[in-house]
Amino acid sequence: MRVAVMGAGAVGCYYGAMLARAGHAVVLIGRPSHVEAVRAHGLRLQTQAFDGQVELEASTEANAVQGADLVLFCVKSTDSEAAAAQIAPHLAPDALVLTLQNGVDNDERVRAVLPSHEVAAAVVYVATEMAGPGHVKHHGRGELVIAPARRSVEVAGQLIAAGVPTQISDNVRGALWAKLILNCAYNALSAITQLPYGVLAQGAGVTEVLRDVVAECLAVAKAEGIAVPGDTAAAVRAIAQTMPSQYSSTAQDLARGKLSEIDHLNGLVVRRGEALGVPTPANRVLFVLVKLLEGKKQA
Fold first, then answer.
1. Torsion angle of alpha carbons 80, 184, 137, 19, nearest 10°?
2. Rg of the chain over all Cα atoms, to the nearest angstrom
3. CA–CA distance, 53 with 5 (Å, rounded to integer)
4. At which of 103, 135, 170 does a domain end?
5. Which residues, in sequence order, are CB contacts of 49 under 8 Å at separation 6+?
6. CB–CB of 265/183 below 8 Å?
7. Could you tell me whether strands 43-46 and 51-54 are parallel, antiparallel, or unpaired per DSSP bridges?
8. Were both Cys, which of 34, 54, 90, 262 would link to 290 (CB 3.0–4.6 Å)?
9. What is the C-alpha separation between 289 and 239, in angstroms, rounded?
10. Nearest-CA neighbor of 243 among 137, 107, 120?
11. Comparing C-alpha atoms, which of 162, 294, 289, 181 is closest to residue 236?
12. Distance (Å, whole) CA 144 – CA 103
């Protein structure tokens, strides 16, 4: 396949590198410092089983999506509409745009900008970070759950062959909410404390806070008519066990002085809760604290 990664951060670089290692033609679209490093030396992919340079293309321009069969859409949730508008004039008619993002409504927002193209949601379970320009570090997991689409079976097969566990689900909306709940439980707490999940989960009173946040999220999901799959409580416990050294993406954003996606995580639960008459005090406190820290960093 010809693959373009729109938004070459930690998630996009990891999956782009896995596909490139499997022989696909991949182009990363990202910031100048990152693009320059990749062009000069390739992308360093560091996992528990592999540490080496992966050769692929890189560009700062949205028109690099031209000719791509698959676009991995990995920009921050705050940038979804703007990024979709940037790639719109350059997309191949039969390209599949796969949204690998936090939040529950990015595919709908992107589809509204790209009504004549196929857009499918993906749920991402991976622990990665950018360890520097041109260097992505993988801490654990990496599976994808994608929505049914015309090319989903083909793309899932290629991803599996590239070492990315992938399944197609008719309940991706529920799976997105399941992932949102995990993010709401851990992201803000990790950001506020600047602690990794394993240390965070052992803090006094943290178990009870996680329980309250999750209960509110499930109540909002139920009011929306969303069927959240799996054992949510077990999934929350598993995060600290399977990704003990991982800092949340929100923590990484705040540490770098960047705006986070908190409006699309705990903030979304608060807004939906208000609209549906469901109280969300624990999510509101976490949301407000992260917004205050963002403001402090931006001041």
1. -50
2. 18
3. 18
4. 170
5. none
6. yes
7. antiparallel
8. 262
9. 22
10. 137
11. 181
12. 15
| Residue tagged active-site, from 76, 137, 179, 297 | 179
Catalytic site residue 222?
no
Q: Checking phi first, is residue 275 left (phi over 0); if not, alpha (psi -120 to 50) or beta?
A: alpha
Please give the distance of CA 227 from its chain centroid, rounded to a whole number: 21
Residue-wise pLDDT for 26-73, tens only, equals 999 999 999 999 999 999 999 999 999 999 999 999 999 999 999 999
Please compute, for residue 52, the number of CA atoms within 13 A of its CA located in the half-sphere on the CB side: 8
- Domain match, 240 and 264 both: yes
DSSP string, 237-275: HHHHHH-TTPPPHHHHHHHTT---SGGGTHHHHHHHHHH
Instruction: Compute the distance between CA of residue 260 and CA of residue 252 in angstroms, rounded to an integer.
Output: 9
Sequence-distant (6+) residues with CB within 8 A of 82 are none
The domain total for the chain is 2
**Residues 136, 265 within the same domain:** no
Global pTM reads 0.91
Condensed to tens digits (0 to 9), the pLDDT of residues 223-248 reads 999 999 999 999 999 999 988 988 99
Domain of 91, in residue numbers = 2-170
Q: How many CA atoms lie within 13 A of 230 on its CB side?
A: 17
